[in-house]
Specification:
globular; alpha/beta; 312 residues
Length: 312
């Protein structure tokens, strides 16, 4: 009987080994394609999806906004963890400022599109190239873990350089993970006290899974192998660093913006995040139209008015 157990175990291990032999190279290719910057041309200051009509329209309107307000702009630069990080500061007010945190693959030029409601509200605007994006240094996305330290460095820069007393974080997709980790950090300045999130996901694993399904990629075991590669290469545990694991500690005034049509950060997940959010002053606003990160292009008046009212 014992010999049959050993045979079965050997067959099982051989099957696992064969599966990993076939799927690990796929996972490595997916990880490198989605989360590693192999050259400065990757995740640069260009439209990330020029074939997507809405994305291109957002890009063009954002660039037009920046051109219209170029006289208010100052190029800014900080160093954090020995990385050179670059941004643009638009002066529209006195002591309030928003830091716009874009999603994965996006540079500061993408963030222009979301700046107008803050300008209307009298906020200065800081758009940044996240590490490994645009002109900033870095090679790998850490899904918000190390990026959150960069946000704190930018916040301290705003306070020291411009006398900013109120800082709002406007966070899009993975920028929300960054913003939450920054806001709850012990060394986050008290001036960071307002939080706006669009399309926040519960965990990066969950949203990456939805992307893989949409792209018709094999899930098992590639999905979890990619999560393992993230940990091995950056030290980020995607579950421990996730929004759902940390949003209960968030105390900033918080505004959730979410589309009923979002298939990557699904509405059911948004409800979970809102319920668990620890802020004593929180609001969830639903939009009937707009894909992931494309709410404003489909509901501009409501989107902008919602933010302006929140900032009051």
């Amino acid at each position: 009987m014992e010999i049959y157990v050993w045979i079965a175990l050997a067959v099982l291990l051989s099957g696992i080994g064969a599966m990993l032999w076939f799927t690990l190279p796929i996972a490595i290719r997916v990880y490198k394609a989605q989360l590693v910057r192999t050259s400065k041309d990757v995740w640069g200051r260009v439209c990330s999806a020029p074939d997507n009509q809405e994305q291109l329209q957002m890009w063009n309107e954002g660039c037009q906004w920046a051109d219209e307000h170029k006289d208010a702009m100052e190029e800014v630069h900080i160093v954090n963890e020995e990385l050179n990080l670059y941004g643009e500061f638009y002066r529209f007010g006195d002591d309030k400022c928003v830091i716009i945190l874009p999603g994965r693959c996006e540079s500061l030029k993408y963030s222009y599109y979301f700046a107008e409601p803050y300008r209307k509200a009298g906020y200065n605007v800081l758009v940044i190239d996240s590490r490994a994006h645009g002109h900033s240094d870095g090679e790998r996305s850490t899904i918000g873990r190390k990026e959150s330290g960069d946000v704190i460095a930018w916040a301290n820069f705003l306070i020291k350089q411009y006398g900013i007393k109120t800082i709002c974080l406007h966070c899009i997709c993975v920028g929300s993970a960054t913003g939450i980790l920054a806001s709850i950090a012990k060394n986050c300045p008290a001036e960071v006290c307002e939080f706006v999130t669009e399309g926040c996901f519960t965990t990066f694993r969950e949203t990456f899974k939805q992307h893989m399904i949409a792209d018709k990629r094999p899930l098992f075991p590639v999905l979890d192998l990619v999560m393992l590669l993230i940990y091995l290469n950056t030290g980020t545990n995607v579950l421990a660093a996730s929004p759902i694991a940390n949003i209960g500690k968030l105390k900033s005034r918080t505004l959730f913006l979410h589309s009923e049509k979002d298939i990557f950060s699904r509405p059911v997940q948004a409800k979970r995040l809102f319920k668990k959010c620890g802020s004593p002053d929180k609001k969830l606003v639903w939009f009937s139209q707009g894909s992931h990160s494309h709410i404003r292009i489909n509901n501009k008046e409501k989107y902008d008015n919602t933010i302006v009212e929140f900032l009051k």
